[in-house]
Design a protein that fits this description.
This protein has 6 helices and 9 strands, in the order E-E-E-E-H-H-H-E-H-E-E-H-E-E-H. Keywords: Nucleotidyltransferase, RNA-binding, rRNA processing, Transferase, tRNA processing, tRNA-binding.
Length: 237
Amino acid sequence: MRPSGRAPDQLRDVTLEIGVSRYAEGSCLARFGQTHVLCTASVEQGVPGWLKGQGRGWVTGEYGMLPRATHTRGRREAAQGKQSGRTQEIQRLIGRSLRSVVDLKILGDRTITLDCDVIQADGGTRTAAITGAWVALARACKYLVEEKVIKETPVTGQVAAISCGVFDGTPILDIDYAEDSSAEVDANFILAGDGRMIELQATGEKRPFSDEEFAELMRLAKLGCGQLFDKQRAAVG
C-alpha cells in the first residue's frame, strides 16, 4: 500500500492552470498533488552572443524553490551568492527538454526564458516544472502568432515528464516525497508527445534494479505521460 493510498499506476491529482501571470507571454501553474510549480514564459528580442547571426532563436530554463517550499525554511540561493549544483542541473534539464520540440529557426532572433519557481514541494518538482513549462511555452508561442510577430508556432510537439520508482518492491507512478525518501529505485522520464524519449534518469537508490523492473517503470511513465499530454492539450486550447 502506497502512503497516499493511490494505486501503483495512479497519478496524483494534476491540474495545469493557465493565465496565472498577468505580464508573462505564457504562464501555467502546475499542481501535482501537493507539489505546485509556477511556470512563466518570457519572450525577449535577441539571443545569446554565441548565437548571433545564425538566424536561430533560443529557449532556456531557470528553476528555483521559494524559501518555505519545504517543511523547513531554506535560504535563498541569491543570499548565498551562488546556485546549488541541483538547481543548475534541473534548469539545464528544463532547457534541453523544451528545446527538443522547438524549431529555433521559426522562432527567429528571440529568446524564450522558462522560469519555473517551486511554491510548494512534495516530490517531483522537476517533472512538474517541465510539464508546466511546456504549457507556458506553447501559450507564449500562440500569443506570438496571434500578434503576428511570427507566422507559425515553432513548437513542433509536446513534452511531459513524470517520476517513477520502486517502493516496497513495487514499481509505482508519480512518486511523492514520502515515497521518494525511501524508494529503492528513483527515475524521471521526459517523453515527447509521440512516445519517443527525450531524457531518462534512473538510479538504484538502495539496490540495483532489473531489466523487468525498468521495463515496468517505462510502461508506467508512458501511461502517466499520456494522461499529462491530454491535460496539456486541454490547457493550451
